[in-house]
Amino acid sequence: MADHLFKVEGLRLSFPDLAAKPLFRPAPRIEVLKGLNFSITAGKVIGIVGESGSGKSTLGRALVRLLEPDSGTILFDGADISHASPSDLAGHRRHLQMIFQDPMSSLNPRQKVGTIISGPVRFHHLAGNPADAAAEALERVGLPADILNRYPHQISGGQRQRVGIARAIALSPRFILADEIVSGLDVSSQAQIITLLEKLVADLQLTLAFISHDLSVVRRLCDRIIVMHAGQIVEEADAADLFSNPQHDYTRNLLAAIPLPEIDDQWLSAS
Amino acid sequence: MTEAFLSIENLSARVAAIGTPILRSVSLKVIPGETHGLVGESGAGKSMIGKAIMGLLPRAIEITEGEIWLEGRNLLDMKRGERRRIIGAQTAIIPQDPLTALNPSRRIGPQMTDRLTHILGWAERKAQVRALGLLEEVHIRDPKRVMHSYPHELSGGMRQRVLIAAAFAAEPKLIVADEPTTALDVTVQKQILRLIAELKAHHETSLLFVTHDMGVVAKICQRVSVLFSGRIVEQNEAASIFSNPGHAYTKSLIQATPRYDRPDESLLPVDPAILEALDREIATHDRQQGTADG
Amino acid sequence: MVDRHKLPMRLWLSGTWITLFVAAALFAPFIAPHDPLAQDLLYTNLPPVWISGSEPGYYFGTDSLGRDVLSRLIYGARIALVVAVIAGGGACLIGSVLGLFAGFFRGWTDVLISRVVDIWMAFPPVLFAILLIAVLGTGLHSVIIAIIVIDWTRFCRVIRAEAMQQSRMEYVESALVVGRGRFGTMLVEVLPNIIPAIGVLLSLEMGIAVIVEAILSFVNLSLSSDDATWGGMIAEGRTVIYHAWWILVFPLVALFLTVLSFSQFGEGLKERFDPVLK
Hints:
The complex is a heterotrimer.
Chain A: E1 4-16, E2 29-41, E3 45-49, H1 56-63, E4 71-76, E5 79-80, H2 86-93, E6 96-99, H3 103-106, H4 113-123, H5 130-140, H6 157-169, E7 175-179, H7 187-204, E8 208-212, H8 215-221, E9 224-229, E10 232-238, H9 239-244, H10 249-256
Parallel strand pairs in A: 3-8, 3-9, 6-7, 7-8
Antiparallel strand pairs in A: 1-2, 1-4, 4-5, 9-10
Helix pairs in contact in A: 4-5, 4-6, 5-6, 6-7
Chain B: E1 6-15, E2 21-30, E3 35-39, H1 46-54, E4 61-70, E5 73-74, H2 80-90, E6 91-94, H3 98-101, H4 108-118, H5 124-137, H6 143-147, H7 156-169, E7 174-178, H8 186-203, E8 206-211, H9 214-220, E9 223-228, E10 231-237, H10 238-243, H11 248-255, H12 272-289
Parallel strand pairs in B: 3-8, 3-9, 6-7, 7-8
Antiparallel strand pairs in B: 1-2, 1-4, 4-5, 9-10
Helix pairs in contact in B: 4-5, 4-7, 5-7, 7-8
Chain C: H1 9-26, H2 28-31, H3 69-105, H4 107-122, H5 125-136, H6 140-167, H7 170-178, H8 182-218, H9 230-239, H10 246-273
Helix pairs in contact in C: 1-3, 1-10, 3-4, 3-6, 3-8, 4-6, 5-6, 6-8, 7-8, 8-9, 8-10, 9-10
């Protein structure tokens, strides 16, 4: 029990379908998460995989409470945060961090990298000098210190994503949500970010939820994997088991659809 | 040796205003029925080659030298109108983003038959029959309904199918596919790749396939050009590219791609030494071309 | 590449004119060669000095009451500047604040503000202004209030759209994840990103305010026709355009250059100093 950082039960979440809204009645709701149950063990990396529309990003945003679920409970460190108000959440905020998909749009273009990383540290009044914390986080993600004085558009895509990671780890949070953070990158920067994450997970004992559509990336990073489809969990297993012995047809299809970088004349025709 | 349908010789292009090279002496041949992969990371210039063939380069970019031969005629020597006619009749594009490639305020049908009626001068009726047949060929279940639909009424995969059908409509001899599956989910990607391969075989079309994904290259291309900074660093049969990459950069691109079947193999980011060597090579090339100071 | 450290030409030109304009307004009593209101019926409709028949000292000639055109132009700048700064600034402040709230908070705040804007914009602006001045009485303060009351919607609409677009950016989510409140996020993350837009709009609005004041002077709803305003001068010049064109042309040119300079200056500033565009 104690080692479950997150415990999620019966999680449901829906959005209003404004396109189908009748004139004088409330809009019908589209259910995006249809009753999810799972838990996240402290110090482990959990992969949340699925295709577009599977609800994986919505689930992530519910975990860090950017979205409020319709029903069900989210226990974070034993506390029910599923309907917590912003002031109730204040104490947890520092420990619920997020790394975003698009490093360009997740960094404020009018703030320098130093401000972007040290701002949250200053906001939470953490012990020590915020500038030092920023410098240390930057070093951890393998960026030179002179980047602190640059604007986001003055650095490369791979560097921006490292800044996003530095911003999250600077707060020493208990949980980090990484939403598709390597999908916009070139293979070479992608490989660097993955190796960096592997290292950070090992060094800092991060508890990480890694949302991705790419099973190959998930396989490298994650201990446990949740496969989502149409708002439901179709399969949940330890990473090794899921890949060696996928139980659900959907998982098998997903695996079969990944083009590996090797010549295979049968691949295209095999279903 | 079969005669190449498309042959690009020594093509160089640069940003006109500031002289930054975009393509550096690129040469490649595509023989009939072959799929030639252009692979590289962002900024490698892979899309620019396709755009140069189609005459769709942004205005800011000028071709400084080289030839583009299509069926024995140099496109770059032709007058604008003549070139456009040949390109319109012989080639087609499958674009990356199926949403912006279709006009949101027109029905699918007329968007598909436009080329046939305008460029090839077909009768409207004949063009419609052809479009319907093609939609069936790309496995769209209710082609009549789709012809009357607007783009937003179709899913991403369906839209991409429509665009593929439209590309094959005028029986082009060459299709440039510019990252056609990048925006799609893997399961849909596989269907689309299969579809492209099927149609290509059936219509005996040549395909220039632009992608950043070494996995996709391995599955669909017969020959591959690996690009870096607008220069082809390696060009070979796909089989040898993957079994025995000739250039260190090619090898590292393959090794940097994570594989779910080999979780314990260490993932090697591209060695900076390789990139430095490439940069030196390119600097030498630029000096020889005399474009470095231009 | 464009050298970003050099001031662009349009910033130079517009900046020079605005400096002249502001200096003329501030130091009018010291610069103006004559009293702008002093009539001299012996010297009516004198042409500018470079045309034969002129009198030395009356550089841009005189109007039909023998008042010095240059002095009236210089004093007219005073009124134009006051209107530009107070009316433009007031409309900007009210419109931007409401637009920012509507665009960032959405929901009922947005519904309320947007509906008011829609209704507001459905009034024909000129009639609205005349109506307002009829209620408030003619005079400069009425003109300023009328401009603010009518034109804040222009800011509100644009800033609302900008704020909406900004609040969809992931750095806004990121700030919420950090735990900043909604209001703090709006000030720290969203506001700095729409200040360039506000600046450009403000510069346009200052030009518009000057024009509106001129129009209202033209139809005699601003200051009394004795006062030196560009609009009033244009109105007078219109009646004698065939034999004394300068009375009309000089204030018209001043008005044109001022309005153009404001808009160019705003765009130029954004181009030169916005870190995102560098």
